[in-house]
Amino acid sequence: MSEEEPPQDDMADFIEAAALLTIRYLMARDVSLSAAATLSRLSRTGPARLTALAAEEGSSQPSMTQLVQRLERHGLVSRVKDPDDGRVALLSITDAGRVLLDERRRTRTRRLKALLRTLSPEDGAALTEAARLGMPALRHLAERAAGSDADGPAGAPPG
Question: Structure pTM?
Fold first, then answer.
């Protein structure tokens, strides 16, 4: 590796630690990660066919069908007619689903703020600077990941 290349192992460790912190300590346990991701996708992108939702979430159609049935029973998603094809039903997040996502976001924020208060001023300043400098790159990574296929990040060689 040349001196010009970024320290990818350090970055990977940093991002993984942030992800683990989020998943293990900051997330509410009210619904599964799969359910939360599905609700979040419907909130961001609007109504979707079950088959498209399963493909986008990397799930099998039978698994997504079961998940959607559970979400429907809890009033978090509903089926709406496709305006382009009345024979097709689309899945849409309900107001209750949006409320749940907002509550989860508030829970994560509250828990994170409590944890951040435990840091020394130096550690807090270091994380603040890392966030300020790194957020644009992290957003770019998230965009690339969203545009990737099952084989890996967009533009990355296989393997």
Answer: 0.77
